[in-house]
Amino acid sequence: MKIRVEDLRERLQGAEERPTEAAAYVLRHAAKGDPKSVLESLDDFAVNHGFLMNLGPEKAPLLEATLRSLGLRLRVLELGCYCGYSAIAMARNFEGEGRLISLEKSALSVAAASEIIDHAGLADRVEIVHGDSGESLARLEGEFDLVFLDHWKGLYRRDLETIEARGLLRPGSVVFADNVGPVFGAEEYLEYVRGCGRFESRNEVSTIEYTDIEDAVEISIYRGPRGA
Ligand code: CA
Fold it and tell me: How far is CA 51 from CA 14, 41, 144, 207, in A?
């Protein structure tokens, strides 16, 4: 059952606390140690019980393909963990030394995502950092191969500028931004990443997870501090 555009706002109400219910659902229904089963349980919950702002089954393959194109022993940074859906989708592709750091502001989401990621058997590959993204970014060091932006849309530009200023990207790093379609008002971010001269950027049209509503992702390759 797909969600209609007029239902979306209503469905999002209460979404802040929904990860707690989703975690209980996953622990009850998903096979332990099986990332695919965990993602399917989250999809099932989102469609049949309560809307979840997950990456969803349509966009996840695009993110995973982008990740795999960069290699398998990766250092990945995620902004906005929520239920851990995208963290699981990415981390299940890691081999050996692949690691993901996920920044999350909501304590409820941190607790729920920790349980869900542990149930998927990926706790040793994912570190969730609780707090405001700006404050957490100020403490991060080293370069990341992939950055996935999926937190507050109004913070995408500010946080990408911080990521650049702190030297967290290397030439060739990819910044993958979810929800840059017409519903979310990501114009400021798109203008920045396309116009600053330091990224080679492309847009992929998709839909908002579990709906037919138009959405898009922006995939931007970092060319270095002075551009290409
Ligand atoms: Ca999203």
Answer: 9, 13, 31, 15
Which listed residue (115, 178, 215, 218) is catalytic?
A: 178
The rounded Å distance from CA 215 to ligand 1 centre is 10
Is 179 noted as a catalytic residue in this protein?
yes
Task: Decide if 153 is catalytic.
Answer: yes
pLDDT digits (tens, 9 = 90+) for 79-92: 999 999 999 999 99
| 178 included as an active-site residue | yes
Query: What's the CATH code of the domain at 160?
Result: 3.40.50.150
Report CA(152)–ligand 1 centroid distance (Å).
9
Rounded to whole angstroms, the Cα distance separating 199 from 221 reads 5
Which structural domain, as residue segments, surrounds residue 66?
5-222
pLDDT tier at 53, thresholds 50, 70, 90? confident
Write the pLDDT tens digit of every residue in 125-163: 999 999 999 999 999 999 999 999 999 999 999 999 999
Give me the number of domains the chain comprises: 1
Task: Give domain status of residue 228, yes or no.
Answer: no
The catalytic position among 153, 159, 215, 218 is 153
Burial of 70 (0-12, 13-18, 19+ CB in 10 A): middle
